[in-house]
Amino acid sequence: MSFFLSYLVSKFCPQVPLYKHIADLSGRTSMILPVPAFCLISGGKHAGNTLAIQDITILPVGARRFEEAMQMGSETYHHLKGRLLLLRNMVHMGAMLVKMVALLQTFPGKFFLHIDISLFCVHLVILVLCICSFREGLDLVKEAISRTGYNEKIKIGIDVSATDFCIGTKYDLDYKSPNKSGQNFKSGEDMIELYKELCTVVDYPVVYIEDPFDKEDWEHVKYFSGLGICQVVGGDLLMSNPKRIEKAIQESACNALLLKVNQIGTVTEAIEVVKLAKDVHWGVVISHRCGETEDSFIADLSVGLSTGQIKAGAPCRGERLAKYNQLLRIEEELGDQAVYAGDDWRMS
């Protein structure tokens, strides 16, 4: 049975809430609200900037309820949005100053202004362009978290999607910059050192890294996962494929499964691979896909399977909010029985 038919049967046939029906199918007696991984900065092949990695996300693990996690994520998102709007306005101001400099140079004797503002303009432009770099993106997210006052309650995750910029055995962090591409190649060992710094330096509380290496680079992902310094999530690495999941388990290549239900085929198969992951104490992340609709099925799936984590994008736009609103409704319906994954997000 195709995933679509499996989905229809599970959604419209039962006379109980969908998340409870999924829990019954999977044999689970407890249901847990997942920690949302809110995307704050997008890069990679789908974004119109030069950031190589796909996403920088935040995880409000210190919230007590899903509702509080939504508040934390929304406040941080809007603080970052305000900061980026300010930077954009500074660039517009810089553009006006550049025109003024050109005017002064064209008519040097007509104006009594002898300030070298051209350098100021350059600094403004560089400042905004830097938000497309790896560390500057993290700095902006960290600043937004600090502005909300949730420093101890929000952690950072990154979806590297390294397959997109792997060339042979090297990783090109400037692959989206035509003038720089090929000048910033990193070996697998270089990438490991970069990740180690991000996960162990206090400045960046990175606790989640998805697809840190090419999907066929089993050697480096196995070594990095063995360090035990963060959750290493297999997305492209595993492709929700039972055979690749079994191989990753045997080789200890990662410690979390990214589940995209339309990759796996049916709801039954999704339940089976989640059980496979949980049997070896992996984390499980239910994920949306590009080109999403306003259907909220993955919200019920995440609760019914107690995955502990969900990726549904930023707290904005209808197709994303549909999932988050459904999770809020589920939490309200469960009442005192509602349990938020929180600090147990890796092993729920």
From TrEMBL:
Its cofactor is Mg(2+). Its EC number is 4.2.1.11. One of its GO terms (biological process) is glycolytic process. GO terms for cellular component: phosphopyruvate hydratase complex. InterPro entries: Enolase, Enolase-like_C_sf, Enolase_C, Enolase_CS. Pathway: Carbohydrate degradation; glycolysis; pyruvate from D-glyceraldehyde 3-phosphate: step 4/5. It is an enzyme of class 4 (lyase). Keywords: Glycolysis, Lyase, Magnesium. GO terms for molecular function: magnesium ion binding; phosphopyruvate hydratase activity. Residues 30-348 form the Enolase C-terminal TIM barrel domain. SUPFAM superfamilies: Enolase C-terminal domain-like. Signal peptide: none annotated. PANTHER family: CYTOSOLIC ENOLASE 3, ENOLASE. Belongs to the enolase family. This is phosphopyruvate hydratase. It comes from Rhododendron griersonianum.
